[in-house]
């Protein structure tokens, strides 16, 4: 017992190191959607990956699920459920690293389909209405997934499916409805119920709140937080900062394919504020804050500059920014690591 | 003054989406109309912009009552409105380049000679660089495309702006940037604004006055 | 595992210098290559067919009608690769001539049917209301009668020949195009970009010509190409039933029809080769049309994701 508790603390559920994705385009060009992403996720932890549309965050999610299109190439590793030291030593040729973890980037389609998706990683999709099969009732979809993932005997299927729906607060009297007969909130719960069936240690929510009204957003993320509990880890990908603030313990900010800052959510949204200038700009743009946009637009992922990708929009740009800043002390900026937090705050105000 | 008086409208006979809604916007005023999704507020926005004929009720624009909608409305009345929709992908003709898209209203109203300069000027206003103007919608991001759609809505210098969930698909920074573009335009043209949306915080920050969906009916 | 987790060296990256030691894995190459293979095969076959049909008759001075009763019903040989028919005519030559006639009928009928279908569909969508409902009910009514029956009825009113067959095939095939075009126009017309155009002062004409027509034409063109194989099969069916072209004139249908007697006697080649000539080129055309359909929506999944 004691050893397993220690394990749970020291072993991350997901350990992403140097994850990069690029798309091969016509004429030998490459689009660098994700570059050198590092982060870990422990059980009971909720990480929100935030960034503007087109920053590469959805590509990162697809890479973790092995759902990239055919012209994608990946590098690095994303070890799921590895023992201590896993990940660093796992070669890209094999699906499993030392300590029993699986490298999601190297695993083949059979492994992903049979033992990862649904069983180790539960996906809460962006548009639940599109994620559900339109011609079948919620009950039949739940039962099918229960049968596939849990190998439940036929006689117990109905009961198990009802329990699963109950867990996601999906009302039992709506089980025999078709997806188009459900409201946005109920469709989201049905999709969440499906994601929870396999009791996967990692929940991956890809823009789960897009297009929902504010109270529905809050309900959805509260439910996600409840499902994460102490035993699972949640990776939520979103451009909705309010949703991220409500749910996450930690925030990872992505810009032009790179994670530029990872911070404790309390610090990020609280008095200290973000440390990377881009992240500060994101918060300042919120209508409940300064409502001022960061000038300019993100660079194209097919033509990234040599140095810091944010330099041309940054008020603090200097000579140093011609060189790509290293991701050190949880932030990738030439200026922040030198500054004391007090100085930053003074400038911010 | 833009007056909507007891508007009833829908898409099927005898199944109105909105019934007996009244709302008015004074010149230069910005009004935010707040409501949950699916309540019919977009339909009201389309009625106001003369894009959907109501089953009953009157629309009065600067003292003149509208008698026709869509193509049946006189051109000068239609072009008094600049309209921006929620989904930039659906509101842009996929075959046009961004510069053709922005200048399309100039060409459609027989001012093709001004098209090139106009497109450049308004692209600059919304923060689109020259390098993007030759691209087609599928080659740019949602945020960039919505910037082009805002430029298109402003290029005929309308007296009224109707923004239907303009920023629902966008991130915070692009939202703030586009709201600023619209407000800058209103500041120097004196145009009135009807902004429809479900984000209370945003509309309260953006508009002079917000109206909740349950209120205009009363 | 080897097929997906293949390790490759970075090569040909013109954009940026790679950090040393980054190993890229390439995923899912297989699906793409079968697709390319399918398109190439279709293209090669279609090209060969078009060249054969266009070039053989003017360049090769052989008479496909030449009768040689001494060499009747010869199995395939070097002199006659496809064998000969019951009056000793060379089957390869007759297949090429037959394909020429069948394709001509198919292409002309498909074009005529597409023009009629596009016009009716667009007009119904533009008119809307009662006119639209009336026209579409008529289309439904016509569609409820089996094609072939209606086609037979039409050819039966004329003397056998190429043009009655064209008319018969065209008049029975515009219905689906009319439906496709009407649906497409209606769907395009309700797009916000048409609203935006109206608000920008565009006239009806301008909306139709600049925003609707360019959206519909590729669909109509695709429908026309997809209809060519269908029309060829139809021509073959009519001729096989003895209602299409006169039996002395080689078309794929008449060739199969006149081979029936030989087939009963165990001579397979007069049926097999014209049969293959019906199936293979039409499948190739359909394959190319499929590739074209994919191109109509040129965005790759990676672009959608970004």
UniProtKB/TrEMBL annotation, chain B:
Domain ABC transporter: 2-218
Record flagged with keyword Protease: no
Alphabetized GO MF terms: ATP binding; ATP hydrolysis activity
Top-rank lineage group of the source organism: Bacteria
UniProt KW keywords: ATP-binding, Nucleotide-binding, Transport
Xref: PROSITE patterns: ABC_TRANSPORTER_2 (PS50893)
Pfam entry (one): ABC_tran
Presence of keyword Lyase: no
Gene Ontology BP, a term: transmembrane transport
Protein name, per record: ATP-binding cassette domain-containing protein
